[in-house]
Write a structure and sequence with these properties.
CATH class of the largest domain: Alpha Beta
Number of strands: 16
Shape: elongated
Number of domains: 3
Distance between the termini: 50 Å
Largest sheet: 8 strands, mixed
Oligomer: single chain
Structural class: alpha+beta
Radius of gyration: 28 Å
Length: 455
Amino acid sequence: MAQQPSIPKGTRDFSPLEMSQRNYIFNTVKEVFQLFGFQQIETPAMENLTTLMGKYGEEGDKLLFKILNSGDFLADVSAPDLQAHNSLRLTNRISEKGLRYDLTVPFARYVVQHRNELSFPFKRYQIQPVWRADRPQKGRYREFYQCDADIVGSNSLLNEFELLQIIDAVFKRLNINVIIKVNNRKILSGIAETVGEADRITDITVAIDKLDKIGRAAVNAELLEKGVSQAAVDALQPILELCGNNDAKLDQLADILHLSDIGLQGLEEVRMLFGYVNRVNLIAEVALDLTLARGLNYYTGAIFEVKAKDVAIGSISGGGRYDDLTGIFGLPGVSGVGISFGADRIYDVLQQLNLFPEAAVTTTQALFVNFGPAEEAWCLPVLERLRKAGIAAEIFPEAAKMKKQMAWANSKQIKWVIIVGADEIAQNRMSLKNMQSGEQLSVSEAELLAKLTES
């Protein structure tokens, strides 16, 4: 018995309809990126593991898909190495490459490798798939697309503000009601310093970033398990409970962080960013959220996360500033800031809220019915002229029964069917049928072109 075909867990096939809808998302994001002056690049699906490892924290490294070396990948591995069952050591011997985890680290590698060809500040966007060996669940996939925009070579907070404007413009065009959460890793460092655990900033940020998912009790338990003192955990609680509007939270933080220079620096950056926001009319709500930590180790300043207000799903966009990332690849002093749109989660939100416009579904506008060789010969020049005029049109490839051809048009959601038989050829006209209303008209070629153009 033949094996039933399947795909790996956490991956998906996409039908023509779904691809039309996904392209609606990609095209919307791309148009906004270009509106703000970003240029497109692409990088390989796989990178050297030396490029990827150590950039995403301990948890992120575990989620990297490794690729076995070509040929006999065990050729240089001894029997004792195999028997030792040391997976980390063994992986380093049999795998030199991995699938990219995100688009930011490959972009940093690209900037360093091509720095002599770039003009800074360099604004790039990139729309490509990434892979993570995560546990598949609703809204979380092992293969998914990211739509990134980054600016490198500038320390100005205008760049952060511009990214907030991009987020706002994209979700306004997609009609998704969102909240943009903002924080700053310097504030988080100041908090860790203030509670007496400055050397455990990573443990603290990774834990509190899970607050919405696992709750405060589980976060506190994780902090204690990581070695954060009970006194520090207790001191952290009122900070996480700050309330009021953005200005009120910032004022309260100023009192809490008054002895932390780095915390006050982060506070000033957030105040300046909100100052820019207050000068324009963004549609989306922008809110300070101190539980926002974004566990990726490379963020050093502002951090962002976007949540849909009307659907229970994870973040649909996020990003931040990463001053030190290119230094890892031998190019210190190049500051960067970027955002990433999660196209797959955005798709799920649009689908759940029924927000895909009908125009997002791209299909053939008109189909010529095929009655045989004589009718084909008459229709083909007309079909060619329609396509040259920008009209998506087809002819059924064989002289099948009319019922079959009409059913095929309906299955492809083709609005217009063009019927040309012996009578139509004699009159040099065509019968044009609207498959939605059932209306049928007799038209000349000029009238056909006008009708299809207006629809």
